[in-house]
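Hello Y.,

Per our agreement to keep a running log of every chain we model this quarter, I'm adding this entry. I've kept the format consistent with earlier entries: sequence first, then predicted structure.
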Amino acid sequence: MTAKGAYIAVDWGTTNRRAWLMAGDGAVLASESDGRGVLAIDPAAYDAEVAGLRSRLGDHPILAAGMIGSTRGWRDIPYVDAPADLAALARGSVDVAPGVTILPGVALRTNGRADVMRGEEVQALGATAAGLAPADALFCQPGTHCKWIAMADGALADFATAMTGELFALVKAHGILAGMLDGPVADGPAFHDGLARGMRARDLTVALFEVRAAVLLGMRPAAEAASLASGILIGADVGAQAELSGRDVHLLASGALADLYAAAIVAAGGRVAALDSHAAFRAGIHAIRELLP
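Predicted structure for the entry above:
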């Protein structure tokens, strides 16, 4: 017998959107991915977007997480505070339209620190709930804004957001390094030199200017500038994490950027455990659905 769809799970981000038709037992029956993130959608067009999803995946309830629940999305869903578990996300969910539920993000407001996330928490909690990572795992989620998430007893206890990817894009496009960083970034000697410089840097802005000076003085070929700068920024990001030596870091990403972070984590003495971020998201959102009324 062919399984019947029970609901549509959506990871609705800033730029991208991924949707899965889920069976009642959490199996994936169909999926789609596109560039219809929240920045591509007019605020008045969400009803039409939902109708489109249902026309393609079936007339089912929709459970969505990510930037769809932000000030830039359909509705600003209040954050739940860390420490947070799957039950807290279920309690904080909001029905925004008939058959459409949006999950909250998580906020950190402790020891004078402030941080927020939307969507990444579902991946981390899902990976832990599904046994893909232990209850006290450390997660790294590279991206424009890299998330570092510390779990404790299966709950999301602490996290930090690093603007690493965004900083690289900004210095590549604007300022004194513009035009120098257009080459490819590769996991090679220049990148690892950058990692070593970034990991010990308390003078990150100085380290970045050294990229320009090294090219101008003939100490580095221009073709290495992008790898060197990327290594400095990723090295500073990874190097800011305490006690990585000998520790497992669960990497929720794939592709070229994930490979660069994996190299940096190993260089810092950590061990990389690569996970399927989409599988983790599906595990998390299905576990949350089981907790909803």
